[in-house]
Amino acid sequence: MNTQDQKKAIQSWRAKRVTIDDLAQHLNLSKGTVSRALNGYSDISEMTRIRVRKVADQMGYRPLSHAQAIRTGLVRSLGLVLQVNEHDGHRPFVADFLAGVSEAASAQNWTLTVSTAESDEDTLRLLEALADDQKADGFILPRTRLSDPRISFLRDQEIPFVLYGRTGDPAGCSWYDITSEDSMVDAVEMLAGLGHRRIGFVPGAPGYTYAKLRLEGYQRGLQLAGLPQDSSLITAPAVNIAEGATAAETLLDLDEPATAILYSVDRAAFGAYTVARDRGLHIGRDLSLISYDGLPEGSLIDPPLTTFQVDTRKAGKRLAELLIQQIRGADPEDLRELARARLLDRASHGPAPDPAGPTE
């Protein structure tokens, strides 16, 4: 078939629903080979998979989800339940994260089903309903806890899942996570290198894995920098501006005040700005701040907040890819990846101030 005839054939096929038979006939391949190529089976060469997918896109082929479910037991859909009652409703990452998941799912002709929940109980109800109603073949679980009821439920039900984070009992778990504990180590060492000896730490939400890991990273950073462990420099958890302000006041009211504060989350760090202003302290000169999240607002405050940023779009993409591999039979414990956050080196930190006091 010459190029002109191919174009006419493709135009004709686009006027009707394209089937596996149409693809097989056009490619001069068996239906079984075409089907396995579209579904990413490893016994089909990468060259053949690319060729089949390219022609399928050109011809406008789209699988019937209910037919696939009957044939394979799968609906080719990934599930995600966002719990909007959490301290930020997942605000720091949700748009780019969803874009990454959708992009990776679409590339393999899968879809994404997203639901929102108001509580832990509501989340478990939705996970069960989506699985029972065949709305999702597996689930992405964001913001994991050390003891996570979602993990226990899905593990008991033998429903595939992948974690955006880690957890206390890793048995049977796959994940993609950012080593935020390493970021805390880097931050402490950076501040110590600038002469700071009183570095305060503000933990994140209790029970969440990230909060434990970031605290451990702070403590390891002190050890590596040769600084003493001082429990008075660790405040109560803070996840919003008001709590972050209270934490800053606590650290600045010590007999030997902190000269630098490391926050687990950006939103809490914003609270330190008001406290510093009320006390006549210049952030970046009299008080150093470093945080984690990379919220856009951090670049707009004065001075801009030094923070660690995560590529959430890439995270969503990798989580979708790992979950699809698991649904197709890969061992979840072979599907574990870690990545690093990127430092946004801004103006909210600097050398330790003169012990004589803040300059005017």
List keywords for this structure.
360 residues, alpha/beta, 434 Repressor (Amino-terminal Domain), Rossmann fold, 3 domains, 6-stranded parallel sheet, 5-stranded mixed sheet, elongated
Account of the protein in words:
- The chain has helices at 3-14, 20-27, 31-38, 46-59, 65-72, 94-107, 120-132, 149-156, 180-193, 209-225, 241-252, 266-278, 312-327, and strands spanning 77-83, 111-117, 138-142, 161-164, 174-178, 199-202, 260-263, 288-293, 306-309, 336-339, 342-344.
- It has 360 residues and is of the alpha/beta class.
- The protein has three domains: 3-62, 434 Repressor (Amino-terminal Domain) (Orthogonal Bundle), CATH 1.10.260.40; 72-178 and 311-340, Rossmann fold; 180-310, Response regulator (Rossmann fold, 3-Layer(aba) Sandwich), CATH 3.40.50.
- Strands 2-1-3-4-5-10 form a six-stranded parallel beta sheet, with helices on both faces.
- Helix 2 (20-27) packs across helix 3 (31-38), helix 9 (180-193) runs parallel beside helix 10 (209-225) and helix 11 packs across helix 12 (266-278).
- The protein is elongated, with a radius of gyration of 25 Å.
- The termini are far apart.
SSE layout and pairings?
Blueprint: H1 3-14, H2 20-27, H3 31-38, H4 46-59, H5 65-72, E1 77-83, H6 94-107, E2 111-117, H7 120-132, E3 138-142, H8 149-156, E4 161-164, E5 174-178, H9 180-193, E6 199-202, H10 209-225, H11 241-252, E7 260-263, H12 266-278, E8 288-293, E9 306-309, H13 312-327, E10 336-339, E11 342-344
Parallel strand pairs: 1-2, 1-3, 3-4, 4-5, 5-10, 6-7, 7-8, 8-9
Antiparallel strand pairs: 9-11
